[in-house]
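pinning this so it doesn't scroll away 📌
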Amino acid sequence: MQFPVPQFTDVEDKIIAGLTFKQFAIVFGAAVFTFIIYTISKNLPITIGVAVFTGIPALALVFGKLNGRPLYSSAGNFVQYLFGPKVYIYHKEGKDFGSEYTPIIVEEKVAPKDLKQTAVKIKELNYVLQQQQSEQSKLIDMIKQNREQSK
C-alpha cells in the first residue's frame, strides 16, 4: 500500500497575505512602531521619515535573501557579530584524549649465544665464500681463453 510522502517540508506555511508568520510579524512591528510615532508626534513629515527608516529595513528583512535563505534568519547572527567580541581565543575545554596514555615497556631478552655454534657457522660461511671465489676465478680464466682463441 502506498502512502503519500509530504514534499517541501522545509518551506514555511504562508499564513497572512502570502507571508509567513515571521515575515508578517516584522512588517507588523514596523507598522506599529510607525503608528506609535504618529500618535505621539501628530506630525506627518516626521511620521513619513520614520516610516521610511523603519519600513525599508523591515521590507529588506522580509523579502531579502542571503545565500538562498531569508535575511531575517541571518539577522541574529549579524547582531551577535556586531556587538560580540572580535578576538577569538582558544580555551581548552574538556578532557584531552590524546595525552593520557601509558607507555608499554617491552623488555627485550637477548638469548645467550652459543659461541661454538657461531664459530662453526662462520667457518661454513668462509668455506662457501672461498668456493664461490674459486668458481668465479675459473670462469674469468675461461672467458680470457675464449677471447684469445677468437683473435
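📌 and the second one:
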Amino acid sequence: MSRTVQLCAADDVPDGEARRFDVEGHRIAVIRIGEQFYALGDRCSHANYSLSEGWVWPDDCSLECPQHSSRFSLVTGEPSVLPATEPVPVYAIRRVGPDGEQVELTLPATPDAP
C-alpha cells in the first residue's frame, strides 16, 4: 500500500534544479521548474548514476544524466535520448500547506530497484 510523507520545504529545491532525497529505501530526485515539482527515481536506468546531479531542461521538461547524457521525461520517466532505453520510476509529488510551502511525496509499497 502506498503512503504519503512530508518531504521538504518548497524552498529547499531551487527553481531549475534537482535535489536528491533518500526516503525509506527510495533514492528520489526532486526537480523544480517554476512552481511545479517533479519526482523521479534518482538512478539512471542505463548506468545507475545519480540523476539529481544532472541538468534540468525546462523547455522539454526533462532531466539529463550527467554520466552519458541520457534525458528522462519529468512527467513519464521515459528516456528521450540514448543510451538509456528503460524508464525511471515517477513519484506523485505536490505542494501542500496554506501557501504551498511544504512538499509531500507518495511512496509506493516497495522501494525501486538498486
